[in-house]
Amino acid sequence: xxxxxAAVGPFRPLVLAHRGAxxxxxxxxxxxxxxxxxxxxxxxxxxxxxxxxGVPFVLHDEKLERTTDGRGIASRxxxxxxxxxxxxxxxxxxxxxxxxxRFEEVLRRYGGKIGLLVELKDPQLQPGLERAVAAAxxxxxxxxxxxxxxxxxxxxxxxxxxxxxxxxSLKRLxxxxxxxxxxxxxxxxxxxxxxxxxxxxxxxxxxxxxxxxAQPKLVRRVHGSGMAVFVWTVDxxxxxxxxxxxxxxxxxxxxxxRFRDWIKKTP
Length: 267
Ligand code: G3P
Ligand code: CA
What we know:
CATH superfamily: Phosphatidylinositol (PI) phosphodiesterase
Pfam families: GDPD
GO molecular function, one term: glycerophosphodiester phosphodiesterase activity
Order of helices and strands: EEHEEHHEHEHEHEHEHEHE
Keywords: Hydrolase
Radius of gyration: 18 Å
Organism: Paenibacillus pasadenensis
Number of domains: 1
CATH topology: TIM Barrel
Mean pLDDT: 90
Bound molecules: SN-glycerol-3-phosphate, calcium ion
Enzyme class: hydrolase
């Protein structure tokens, strides 16, 4: 028999589909985003880069080889070149024909329909990325209403959250769009020192922690700085239960459907 779901509270953590429902469809494509929607995720997480001709597009790696039939550095290609590539065949024949999405097309299809967790990918390599992402969000009216308070049901309402490993990049985005909630991605325990967290909390509403950092003590510390906590990338039952029990407000996972069986929903 399936193990009983772990109960957590007072709120079920948000379920954020990492690069879409990427366990079951090619990451960062419309196939993965549609599946995330069908699997009941609260947010789609996606990675945004800038093409040579200044168009924001959705792809994780710096290079094209792993997830497309192209070669070389993705951001050195024009949007037209990127769109001519196949981004699904590597995952399975059924997905051949999937394309690299334009960021604006994602906003047009999903803005307001499901939450979007937008990662500014390698912003140090892509000058102008923040400006292009902000312009697209503004064009689609996804400007955020206010800087939402962490920790209560209210913060669930943000239609778009922008996140990055780079605090300077988030700062630049925040200057262009002061009302969009921001998230800082953290992978090492040293980054969770009190003083550093307080500095981040001036800019970010969320800290997105690598799963090894999902410990009650550390989560409490981040909450103490005023930020909500997401945890990435949780793909096993044990990890999901641990992150939820540690007090995570949201869990980034490749398999949003599995997550529902692991963690009991609380109203
Ligand atoms: O949400 C955090 C996670 O997406 C960061 O890692 O490499 O999957 O972009 P990566
Ligand atoms: Ca990402």
